[in-house]
Amino acid sequence: MKPAPFAYVRPATLDDAVAELAATDGDGKVLAGGQSLVPVLAMRLGRPGTLVDINAVAGLDGLERRDGALRIGATVRQRHVERSSAAAAVPLLGLALPFVGHRELRSRGTVCGSLAHADPGAELPAVALCLGAALEVTGPRGRRTVRAADFFQGAMTTAVGPDEILTAVQFPAAGPGEGFGFAELARRHGDFALAGVVTRVRSRDGAVAEAVLSGFGVSDRPVTRDVTELVRAAAGEADVETALRPGTEELAREMVDTAGDAHGSQGYRRRLFAVLAARELARAHRRATESPS
Predict the structure, then answer these.
(1) Which of the ends of the chain has fewer CB neighbours closer than 10 A, N or C?
(2) CATH code reported for the domain at 63-172
(3) What are the TM regions of this chain, as residue ranges (predicted)?
(4) pTM of the predicted model as reported, rounded to 2 decimal places
């Protein structure tokens, strides 16, 4: 299929981009990498009247570490982040990005584009949620910052208004005593995950101070839980992963609410989620305790 007809504009400044989007009266879409948007247009699942291409907008291609965070602009490609030494400040990005589509898609797709698209099976929204990322949104009323916990509101639905643009995201840099884990299972590499988990554990003086578990591909949006007490209770056992399993099985029953399909029943996804969660929480705990506090 081919996209329905649309108008195309390519502004050079952020103010012009916001003005062009506002002028569409809710009938416009922002184009950055296009790796999610273009297939939607081609299948006519979306029919915006205007595409506002922000690739020429100055200042949206920045990737820098400042004030204890990694700031990624709206037009920064996933592959650039994947290969950047600056991104080492956020280990979870290094763990997750190789699983985002294929290398060719990551060379064009953007980090902010994946977050704005908010596919419930996507990796980067779950990473943002697990880390407590801050998302910068710009519109006619100025710029505002939205916490990741408030950003994802449903399948392909975010806190970005129809006249606003996601202009950057800030991921907190890893601190001392932090460990991370990431895993997903898909039928083929690059496919959407049947279930995926993102984990973060912070230790202080050898004890668990904080633990967070996020999941994707298991609900209509990325989901997260504070699992500090669960990891703290298992930390003293000889086999931490095995000790975590009863708790992650209970979490799976709570967090995995997507219906079954041809690729896997709900029960299968819950079992898969429980196994991955226990494994990656144990891995994050080990990394956290091995990291200098």
Answers:
(1) N
(2) 3.30.465.10
(3) none
(4) 0.95
